[in-house]
Design brief:
heterodimer; A: about 350 residues; alpha+beta; five-stranded mixed sheet; two-stranded antiparallel sheet; 10 helices; about 15% strand; B: about 250 residues; alpha/beta; Rossmann fold; OB fold (Dihydrolipoamide Acetyltransferase, E2P); 2 domains; five-stranded parallel sheet; about 35% helix
């Protein structure tokens, strides 16, 4: 929350206009009725005005720390009554002292004693007005921030949904597969038939699943199998794959589609970039408290395009760390012509 | 009129099959060959000298764009790809055509009409160069450079470049394995190589800082960099300032 008077010069100017204007008005009034000489009247008005203005700025802190949303009503009320008394007392005593030091005039003393009850009465009223002003401003600021936060949140949600969708189906894969089907309908309708069914099953799985659903490794691998089957129709004998899964792993739960980016990556760097046959191997091993999944693919080291882990693997890493609360669950390793991704799936999700 | 001597370059057998099927239905076309990657493609274009090439972009070893960089006097090109991000926006004006997979026979006929027109007008291959240049602006940082020496095509990962020397209107790329000519400007490499790794030390040299063995004072206000392979490169005054800044001397 920001102090409304400190926000900019104009609001400060408008704020100071009130006490200073009042001081000048009072001086003119006093002079007109010949109560006081103009210099004394002006000094009185300006001093009381300046002290009042300064104290008024401080009142904001009382409002700031008495937020009606978090503090009980009785506490707010007591703080303001106390603050009003302190405000009035400080205002009058400080101002009086200053005028006395600067301008020791017995005539003024008499005048001020006359004025004192009125000023003591004015103190709490001015205090109340200031508090009202600050609360209104705080309310407006609060609303504005709420609005801003809400629209930012909306934007974030939309982005998250979008990237979730994006990670599910790679458009290049889709259009290239459709092109292969178009080709097969002419040359090999049976194969085209099989590919349409595999593609439909794969897409249904990818579109239906929510990002935070858990599935068994068996189910996830069936889907990866569909994906690889489609790529195998496209790339023929260049692609082979093997799943080596411990019996104990098949029913282990994993986040759905978590393997998809890893296989897409393996295909991208293994198959798309190579004209040699490539094998992709998945191994799943059960250990106490966790399951280790390793995906190994050959790649052509002369293709020279492998740099870093790529967006797909970074997203997978982020997702794992969100779900399990650890950032070290995905590790990659690269030697001469093999790329290896090792993923650890703990038995338990992070308890929140 | 002679038939259009046509070459297909695509890494997917099924994609080639479909295109061959389409082309067989149009009398204007004579299919003279097909290639499944960019290496074969470059050689086939040189040996067969086709009038027209249907070219995929994403292929093993080198992309369709990288392939075009290696071909002198390229033929008329029709891109055939599932990738629309390279596309249309900047390119369609320059490309003879850009077919998005999967496309129907009628679309191929339209592309062939354009190609026939182009071939009849015998225009220069200027458009292709323009196309490559537009592509240059779109590429981010390079991770590799494709060069040709004789009949051999070489893919150089940028990390293994020692330095680049500018010649008249081309550059010479020096690596451990040798040096290669490339028809590109120094400015291009300065813009598309990682600025944290490559520094312009002289009007003629762009240097990989991990290749520095030694920096020697040559004479007053003049320095020489010795690379790990022993090459000595002059450093200009501004070049020295760049170098100092990068190495935080």
């Amino acid at each position: 929350m920001e102090h409304p008077i400190k926000v900019n010069r104009i609001s400060a100017l408008v704020y100071w206009l009130f006490p200073m204007g009042m001081a000048i008005a009072q001086a003119v009034f006093n002079n007109y009725y010949q109560i006081l000489p103009v210099s004394v009247a002006l000094m009185d008005g300006l001093t009381f005005g300046a002290v009042l203005g300064s104290l008024g700025i401080a009142v904001w802190y009382v409002v700031r720390y008495n937020d009606p949303e978090h503090s009980p009503g009785i506490q707010i009320f007591t703080s303001h009554v106390l603050a009003a008394l302190v405000f009035t007392a400080t205002w009058i005593l400080t101002s009086k002292l200053i005028v006395k030091i600067l301008f020791n005039d017995p005539q003024y003393d008499i005048y001020l004693n006359d004025q004192l009850p009125g000023r003591i009465f004015a103190g709490p009223i001015i205090y109340t007005l200031l508090v009202c002003f600050y609360y209104i401003d705080a309310y407006r600021q609060y609303n504005r921030e709420k609005h801003l936060k809400e629209s930012q949140l909306q934007l974030q949600i939309r982005k998250a949904q979008l990237s979730a969708l994006k990670s599910q189906i790679n458009p290049h894969f889709l259009f290239n597969s459709l092109n292969s089907i178009a080709s097969l309908t002419l040359t090999n309708p049976d194969k085209a038939h099989g590919m349409i069914i595999a593609l439909s099953d794969f897409m249904r799985y990818s579109l239906r699943k929510q990002q935070d659903d858990m599935v068994t490794l068996e189910v996830e691998l069936r889907n990866i199998g569909l994906y690889l089957q489609i790529e195998k129709i496209r790339f023929g004998n260049n692609l082979s794959y093997r799943f080596d899964v411990d019996e104990a792993c098949t029913q282990h739960l994993i986040p759905n589609l978590i393997l998809q980016p890893i296989f897409e990556n393996a295909i991208k760097y293994g198959i798309y970039e190579s004209s040699e046959p490539v094998e992709i191997v998945l191994e799943a091993r059960k250990f106490p408290g966790q399951m280790d999944i390793t995906v190994i693919n050959d790649f052509d080291p002369t293709a020279g395009s492998r740099q870093g882990e790529g967006v797909g693997l970074t997203n997978t890493k982020d997702r794992l760390s969100l779900l399990y609360g650890s950032t070290t669950l995905l590790q990659t390793e690269q030697n001469k012509n093999q790329f290896r991704v090792k993923m650890v799936i703990p038995d338990q999700l992070e308890t929140r | 009129m002679d038939r259009i001597r046509t070459l297909i370059i695509d890494d997917e057998l099924l994609a080639r099959d479909l295109l061959k099927h389409y082309l067989s239905k149009d009398d204007r076309v004579e299919l003279i060959g097909e290639c499944s990657n960019g290496f074969e493609g470059v050689l086939a274009i040189q040996e067969l000298n086709p009038d027209l090439v249907f070219l995929d972009i994403q292929m093993p070893k080198i992309t369709g764009f990288e392939m075009l960089e290696l071909v002198q006097n390229p033929p008329v090109i029709i891109f055939s790809t599932a990738y629309d991000q390279y596309a249309i926006r900047a390119f369609e004006a320059n490309a003879i055509d850009y077919l998005l997979k999967p496309y129907p026979f009628e679309r191929v006929v339209v592309a062939l009409n354009k190609a026939t027109e182009k071939l009849a007008s015998k225009s220069t291959p200027l458009e292709i160069n323009k196309l490559i240049e537009t592509h240059d602006e779109e590429v981010g940082l390079l991770s590799r450079i494709v060069v040709k020496s004789g009949r051999k095509i070489q893919v150089i990962p940028v990390g293994s470049i020692s330095y680049i020397e500018s010649q008249d209107d081309f550059v010479m790329i020096y690596c451990k394995e040798g040096h290669y000519m490339k028809q590109k400007t120094m400015k291009f490499f300065e813009q598309h190589l990682d600025g944290n790794q490559f520094v312009r030390i002289h009007r003629s040299y762009l240097l990989n800082i991990t290749e520095i063995a030694e920096i020697q004072l040559y004479e007053k206000d003049s320095w020489v960099v010795v690379t790990k392979q022993g090459a000595k490169l002059k450093v200009s005054k501004t070049g020295y300032a760049n170098l100092k800044h990068m190495l935080k001397l």
